[in-house]
Amino acid sequence: MIKTTKLNLVLLTIFFATQICFGQYTEVINSNRPGLSQSAFSVGKKILQFEIGPYIINEKRSLHPSYDLKGHGVDFAVHYGIFKEELELNIQGIFQNDEKLLQTEENKRANFKQLSIGVKYLIYDPNKNREEKVNLYSYHANRGFKWRHLIPAIAASAGFNYDTKNNPYLSGGVEGVSYNASIITQSNFYGGWVFVSNFLLNRISSNQEDFHYILTLTHSFNPKWVVFAEKHGIKSDFYADNLMRFGGGYLLNKDLQLDSSFTLNLKDTPSVFNINFGVSYRIDRHEDI
């Protein structure tokens, strides 16, 4: 009986230590994919991480001005943990090539829809330096819901965009350098559930300021498989969308993740169907603080 109790104590200690360290360096890759939302946590000090996702897209608008659009593109990101565990430098972008048939006029386009460089900093981690009390007599009590689980980790990011002159994906007059800033929250629940929210103001100081909100719910069935659902709203004076994404990811090894997803628009101005396939890879040279 004593040996069993000691064994339970060791196992529970390992389990809770893993949960507490989730917000810092992890033994396996901590990718932002397959959704578009950003995690509140950085990749870890001296970790270089690449995320890339080729996609195909099909849009159709039936109301005036009507158009059909078919094309392909790639979204990408590079993350590097610098100076502190909570801080990362990142480069993110989306390049698209498509053909847009507007009534009887065909328009071939190719350019960056987004190209930015910025930093992200974890402001608050509710599990940092927390000592978890383990109930040796109740497995369910340790796994059960606690009100403090509702307290999210909080991060902030800021950066600048670069847009070329006469970019066909932007309104007239948007070019050169503009800025972006966001607030990020992340709640980690037992049972493999994670909820992330992003609130982003993009292209600040330009003729086209966009507001984005992204709400992402993920669930891991086991250490290898994860699925997600995501709501992405976009609002500006020139453009608005109400997107939903669904998909999943598979951990091939501790440094390599594969994923796939599809995107739909909840409105038909325009209708959207987007299929994405992605990969995330990290070079792990982490150093403990």
What structural class do you assign from the helix and strand content?
Answer: mainly beta
What fraction of residues sit in β-strands?
Answer: over 45%
Strand and helix order: HEEEEHEEEEEEEE
Average pLDDT level = 84
Tell me the number of strands.
Answer: 12
**Widest β-sheet, arrangement of strands:** 1-2-3-4-5-6-7-8-9-10-11-12
- Give the N-terminus to C-terminus distance in angstroms: 39 Å
Helical coverage, percent range: under 10%
- Rg calculated over all Cα atoms: 21 Å
Q: What is the 3D form? A: globular
Number of helical segments with 4 or more residues: 2
For this entry, give a set of tags.
289 residues; mainly beta; 12-stranded antiparallel β-barrel; globular; disordered N terminus
Explain how this protein is built.
This protein has helices at residues 2-20, 139-143, and strands at residues 47-61, 67-81, 87-102, 105-124, 153-163, 176-189, 193-204, 210-220, 225-235, 240-253, 256-265, 271-284. Helices cover 8% and strands 56% of the residues. The model is unreliable at 1-23 (pLDDT under 50). Strands 1-2-3-4-5-6-7-8-9-10-11-12 form a twelve-stranded antiparallel beta barrel. A hairpin with a 5-residue loop joins strand 7 (193-204) and strand 8. The chain has 289 residues and is mainly beta. It is built from two helices and twelve strands, in the order H-E-E-E-E-H-E-E-E-E-E-E-E-E. The protein starts with a helix and ends in a 5-residue tail after the last strand.
